[in-house]
What we know:
Elements: H1 2-19, E1 41-50, E2 53-61, E3 79-85, E4 93-100, E5 107-109, E6 115-119, E7 122-131, E8 136-143, E9 151-152, E10 166-169, E11 175-179, E12 213-217, E13 230-232, E14 234-235, E15 253-260, E16 263-269, E17 276-281, E18 288-295, E19 305-310, E20 313-320, E21 331-336
Parallel strand pairs: 14-18
Antiparallel strand pairs: 1-2, 2-3, 3-4, 5-7, 6-7, 7-8, 8-9, 10-11, 11-12, 12-13, 15-16, 16-17, 17-18, 19-20, 20-21
The structure holds beta-L-arabinofuranose.
Amino acid sequence: MISYNRKLISILAWASFSAVGGVCQNTTTPASPKPLVTDLYTADPSAHVFNGKIYIYPSHDIEANVPQDDEGGHFDMRDYHVYSMDKIDGKVTDHGVALDIKDVPWAGRQMWAPDAAYKNDTYYLYFPVKDKQDVFRIGVATSKSPTGPFKAEPAPIPGSFSIDPAVFTDTDGTTYMYFGGIWGGQLQRWHTGEYNASLKTDLGKDNEPALSAKVVRMSNDMLTFAEPVRDVQILDKNGKPLLAGDHDRRFFEGAWMHKYQGRYYFSYSTGDTHFLAYATSDSPYGPFTYQGTFMEPVTGWTTHHSIIEFKGRWYIFYHDVERSGKTHLRNIKVWELKRKPDGSLELIKP
Ligand code: FUB
């Protein structure tokens, strides 16, 4: 019920925002956050700066006529497009289909939120998709161009599971993958290390530590994990792990990592409470200390973002459902991310 009230407030706030035509923040962001793509539905935008240009790797939402359920069956996507922008309020170029599910030999259904990385003179596209047994795995595909087309490896990354890969290369050149998502993202099904298909949402143990996102160092070839995956532990200010029942703060899905002035910022969606939250650490492995919400709910159920620095300013790419009003037909947007002098993130009220 709490979550429905919040969504209602968010929708009313959004309606009044739209009615007055939005607000003007400054000259480097658009006058109001408009959908960046209007001919397709796009979501989960992972943005990167490669060779001085912004590239966006989103999900490509489609109307597949699958009924909505708590496991996200209605998100039945089948390919990826890559987009580029020379500047933040500039033209958005669609580079066409970068990877199609029919070209991933092990894939079954549901191509969800991807991410990309550059190393070894190669671009890597990381993507979660259910295998033919309906278990989410993370695949990797390569290209010599940031816009693809990408060629998928013949099998998922060994030892990978769940969804929402976010790949971060540290200032020392080491690359890490953060991943995971509960409920439809299946993270809870792996909590013993073995897959248990009967766990549909979470573990139902509200007073125990929340399920954690995962982090793993990538091998130099970027195609495999270099070590066993670890938990991304999020602690409160007293050093206690966030609890599973703490739906306003605990990790749900949509991890992202960025580094600012030597600190690691782990940001994520709280899922059923629809916030974007963040936690910080001195290490890419954590433990991370919870810092707060930095974006209030958008329209639509899901909340998924990425954060980049471009020409000395920071931006958040995210999605809402302005164009369709439907949870599974989303549109990506960009907005400036502001910080307080101590590095903490200012709250965005969409
Ligand atoms: O796009 C499908 C799923 O919805 C993503 O993987 C989640 O992060 C949520 O945005």
